[in-house]
């Protein structure tokens, strides 16, 4: 997986709905997500069903890495990790309406860092 890095043009990149990533966040193309991430993203767009009970729960953004929004704006979803005995560290966090989010972010290290997903 090749992950993009934030640069001067990163704020200009946006999804079809006009969401703009934070200039401090790196970017990743949807096609560059691991296969399990692409599956999770598809389930988000389809409205589920999700394999984990916590999928779709409110993400509090306590780390304050994502842009600041009102509580309840962000929701988190599990990206399955092969051979993991639990949910693993990978997640997609989306903001806005559940099936039509304004922006989605990928973390592979349980919220220590995020990548804005470019669709």
What does this structure look like?
This protein is of the alpha+beta class and 119 residues long. Helices cover 10% and strands 24% of the residues. The chain has one helix and six strands. Strands 1-6-5-4-3-2 form a six-stranded mixed beta sheet, covered by helices on one side. The protein is globular. The two termini are 16 Å apart.
Helix content: 10-25%
Instruction: Report the mean per-residue pLDDT as an integer.
Output: 85
Q: Can you tell me the residue ranges where pLDDT is under 50 for at least 5 consecutive residues?
A: 1-18
How large a portion of the residues is in β-strands, by DSSP E?
Answer: 15-25%
Q: What's the helix and strand layout?
A:
Layout: E1 26-29, H1 35-46, E2 57-58, E3 74-78, E4 91-96, E5 101-107, E6 115-118
Which terms would index this structure?
119 residues, alpha+beta, six-stranded mixed sheet, 1 helix, globular, disordered N terminus
Short description:
This protein has 119 residues and is an alpha+beta fold. The chain has one helix spanning 35-46, and strands at residues 26-29, 57-58, 74-78, 91-96, 101-107, 115-118.
